[in-house]
Design goal:
Layout: H1 2-16, H2 23-36, H3 46-61, H4 68-77, H5 79-83, H6 87-96, H7 100-112, H8 131-145, H9 149-165, H10 171-189, E1 195-200, E2 203-209, E3 225-229, E4 239-245, E5 256-258, E6 260-267, E7 279-280, E8 284-293, E9 298-306, E10 311-313, H11 325-330, E11 336-339, E12 343-350, E13 363-371, E14 375-379, E15 382-386, E16 389-395, E17 399-404, E18 446-455
Parallel strand pairs: 7-17
Antiparallel strand pairs: 1-2, 1-3, 4-18, 5-16, 6-8, 8-13, 9-12, 9-15, 10-13, 11-12, 14-17, 15-16
Helix pairs in contact: 1-2, 1-3, 3-6, 6-7, 6-8, 8-9, 8-10
């Protein structure tokens, strides 16, 4: 079914673009869709609903509106499922037949539900489904009917970002992406000419226009960047981007959670809380790492625990490595564990209920490390990230560990600076319900001016 819709859609796009498309061929394809593919049911799988909304959009684009009853039934009875995916496509179908009010309702609902932040996935069969393909298709159909710049820009940025992350794309992904972005940039041309200047403080860095973009590879200085547009500028016609590079300071670091939560606790060999400011050289330390989804299922999650110089991983694959029975009994099983000199990596999938993420369970993992070098060391934060959707990420608190020498005659470690932020051994402080801190502001030491992907 999807192949028929895909081919018919592109025949309609070609006709709109001025190419010759035989009327008989197009009419037969649309009749087939109408007779064989528009089936009303009480319940649909996500794939079925996605295909059905696409079929209704193709019918509307072809000027056929005899299935308005089926559209209304979907809108009325499948709200939640629509908002999780094909609401923009059904909205565009309404827009094509002139029902702007219903279209706006569906578009607004999709925007509220975070329709551009779908979990990354690929389907190896069926319609060869993927997150990027669906998002690009939805952007394309929205551009056919909507003047909502914010809705469009939200999808444009996401499509471009995902294309950069996925250099090897399927034929469908490329087709929908280039069609959608082609429509978008054609619409930008209609906004008319513009010109302006870029300043660093009061210093003029350069001028630009719709025919001559301004690009600066390196900008040095602490003064604010300022862009001034000449009169006659239409909002949304020009775009800019600034890429910053720098090394964040410890003071500027802030823990964060976006779609996933992670926390870490250091324990004694008996399982009690560890005093991180009085660890004896040679002590065995249990590191408990917990992670959970803050939305639905998340596949291919990587959890990284960087270790300070004073700690060394105990490799459980060696016969000489000490084991603790209570750790083995309580530990979840990761898909894969990678033990390195300076870090421990866990790879796993997370189950989650998108309708009530607070009920999602923590998955618990244990690692054994040993205090080997006396001194005071910074504990880097534990981090979790969905490998194929980098917007889903979390990082914990930093801290300090003080390892005292095993010999009583050796000098003591320097005392802890009272101004330093400590990683808590009660990491969430909320009885199991993690707070969601704001994202940290970027630390800017160098600026690069690049081609545009942010609206002015």
């Amino acid at each position: 079914p999807w192949g028929t819709l895909y081919a018919t859609h592109f025949l309609l796009e070609a006709k709109d673009a001025g190419y010759h498309v035989g009327d008989t061929v197009l009419e037969n394809a649309v009749d087939y869709i109408s007779d064989e593919m528009l089936v009303s049911k009480d319940a649909y799988s996500d794939s079925e609903l996605n295909t059905l909304c696409y079929a209704l959009y193709v019918m509307s684009k072809a000027g056929r509106n005899e299935h308005i009853g089926l559209m209304n039934s979907l809108h009325r009875n499948h709200q939640r499922q629509l908002m999780a995916g094909p609401a923009p496509v059904l909205g565009a179908a309404y827009g094509m037949i002139g029902d702007i009010q219903t279209m706006d309702q569906l578009m607004a609902g999709a925007q509220r539900s975070g329709w551009t932040n779908q979990r990354f996935y690929y389907s190896s069969g069926g319609s060869v489904d993927s997150t990027l393909r669906n998002l690009a298709m939805r952007l394309s159909v929205i551009l056919d009917v909507s003047d909502n710049d914010q809705l469009v820009l939200e999808a444009v940025y996401k499509v471009i970002d995902m294309m950069e992350q996925q250099p090897y794309r399927t034929t469908q992904e490329n087709a929908f992406c280039y069609m959608a972005l082609g429509k978008y940039f054609s619409r930008q041309i209609d906004k008319g000419p513009y010109s302006g200047r870029v300043y660093l403080g009061e210093e003029l860095l350069g001028e630009f226009s719709n025919e001559a973009p301004f690009v600066r590879v390196f900008v040095e200085g602490a003064a604010p960047l300022r862009i001034e547009m000449d009169s006659g500028y239409t909002p949304g016609a020009a775009f800019f981007s600034i890429a910053s590079r720098g090394v964040p300071t410890r003071e500027a670091y802030t823990a964060e959670e976006n779609g996933v939560a992670v926390r870490r606790q250091f324990l004694t060999r008996e399982g009690g809380p560890l005093d991180l400011h009085n660890v004896r050289q040679g002590d065995l330390i249990v590191m408990r790492t917990e992670v959970r989804s803050l939305r639905g299922d998340i596949d291919n999650v990587a959890v990284q625990s960087l270790l300070p110089t004073g700690l060394e991983v105990e490799n459980p694959r060696l016969d000489t490595t000490e084991s603790l029975p209570w750790v083995i009994e309580e530990m979840s099983e990761p898909a894969y564990q990678d033990l390195r000199d300076d870090r421990i990596l866990l790879f796993l999938d997370l189950d989650g209920d998108p309708n009530d993420p607070r009920r999602n369970q923590w998955q618990t993992y244990y690692s054994l490390v040993r205090a080997v070098t006396p001194g005071q060391f910074t504990l880097p934060p534990v981090q979790a990230e969905a490998m194929y959707d980098p917007e889903i990420l979390a990082s914990g608190e930093t801290g300090t560990i003080i390892i005292v020498p095993d010999s009583p005659d050796a000098p003591e470690a320097e005392p802890l600076d009272s101004n330093e932020t400590e990683e808590s051994n009660d990491p969430d402080g909320t009885n199991g319900e993690p707070e969601t801190p704001e994202r940290p502001e970027p630390i800017t030491t160098e600026l690069e001016q690049e081609s545009s992907n942010a609206e002015m």
